[in-house]
Every structure is written in C-alpha cells, then in structure tokens.
Amino acid sequence: MPYALFSNAVQVSNAFATKSEVWQHAAARGLVIEVGSGEEDPPRRILDMGYSIHACADLAPITDSAEHGESDIARLIAAGAFNLTSAAAAS
C-alpha cells in the first residue's frame, strides 16, 4: 500500500512504497522536528504542525525539478491549504 505526505487533508507529495520513505522525504524538506519529553527520554521525531502521513492511491509520479519540491509547493498553493502556522514559524 502506498503512502504520501498530507497537509491539511491535501496530498502534497508523490506516493511512496513505505512510510519510511515518506519520513525521509519530509525530513529532506525540513518538515520533521525532534521533541524531547524529558531529560532521560530520547527525543521523538514528529512532523511539523499540519502535516501527516496517510495511505493513498498509487498515482503516477509527478516530474518536477528539485526532486518534486516545486510540485509540493504548487499543490499546496493550488489547494489553498498551506500551513500558515508553519510558514510564520519559518520566517
């Protein structure tokens, strides 16, 4: 079953064969953060606010430059579903 990265219920990445590949894709785009719950516990990796990983339909890959980074942004803009909280935090 393929998986993809979603932002506010809109698919924003190509489909990947495993969840692990989606995590790698999200990390490469700066969407993974580490949070610690205490001094003794190791930090956990979580997706930036508004992002999630879900099963998706197996679609043909989108071919854009920068390893689909531009298509990710174009999908968010077209859907009007970009994450304003994350955008404000990044600036």
What does this structure look like?
The protein is an alpha+beta fold and 91 residues long. The chain has one domain (3-84). 31% of the residues lie in helices and 22% in strands. The chain is built from 3 helices and 5 strands. It has helices spanning 19-28, 69-79, 84-90, and strands at 3-7, 10-11, 32-35, 44-47, 51-55. The strands form 2 sheets. It has a 3-stranded antiparallel sheet. A hairpin with a 2-residue loop joins strand 1 (3-7) and strand 2 (10-11). The longest helix has 11 residues, at 69-79. The protein is elongated, with a radius of gyration of 14 Å. It starts with a strand and ends with a helix. Mean pLDDT is 76; it is low at 64-68.
Order of helices and strands: EEHEEEHH
User: In DSSP terms, counting alpha (H) and pi (I) runs of 4 or more, how many helices?
Assistant: 3
Strand content range: 15-25%
Could you give the count of β-strands?
5
Sheet with most strands:
3 strands, antiparallel
* Mean pLDDT over the full residue set: 76
| Structural domains: how many | 1
Proportion of residues in helical segments: 25-40%
